Amino acid sequence: MPENRDNQSEIRAKRSTGISGLDFQLGGGYPEGTSIVVYGSPLTGMDRMAVQFWKAEEAEGTYLMLDSAPAVGMIQPSGSDPGTLVPLMHGDRVVVDSLSSVLMDHGLDAALHCLTDGVDTVRQQGGNVMFLLYSGIHTPMEEIRIIRAADIFMTLTETTHGNEIERRLAINKIPHMDVPQRVYPYNVMEEGLEFSTTARVI
Question: Residue 157 maps to which CATH number?
């Protein structure tokens, strides 16, 4: 019955995104046990978004840094292949920064392996895994396969209008709820991303 489906959606456990404005838009956060792919340019603040998710609620988590020098508490694996990464995925909040490195170094099958087998290990305990995927460096087919494999897919964009920069987030795919028909403006602050509780119709 439709009513029962709605009730199940309402009581489904959510995990905070680490950003209060985004939690508001998602009715509490990401559904627990899902994979999250954040797609965009490095200039959109997606790395700060990932750190906010990782550090939220002082929960146990793992941040696998493949693209840069690791900050305090992050792990820099010895390689970017799934055989190295998957055993390191522990806790309620796992970040892989980035899936682009896995894709470029080891190919599409390896990236999909991280999105499936790697996530399954965390999902069994109700955890979430966030992957960063950088725009403009992968083929359309690679991006399509990753979108299909991910539970949640979000796009961050940055547009310049004269002397103003506009940053927006779109939720393109999410399970257990309607896909929002709006884009959400945000600012990149020193402490991370700050979302508005208003939104724009696409």
Answer: 3.40.50.300
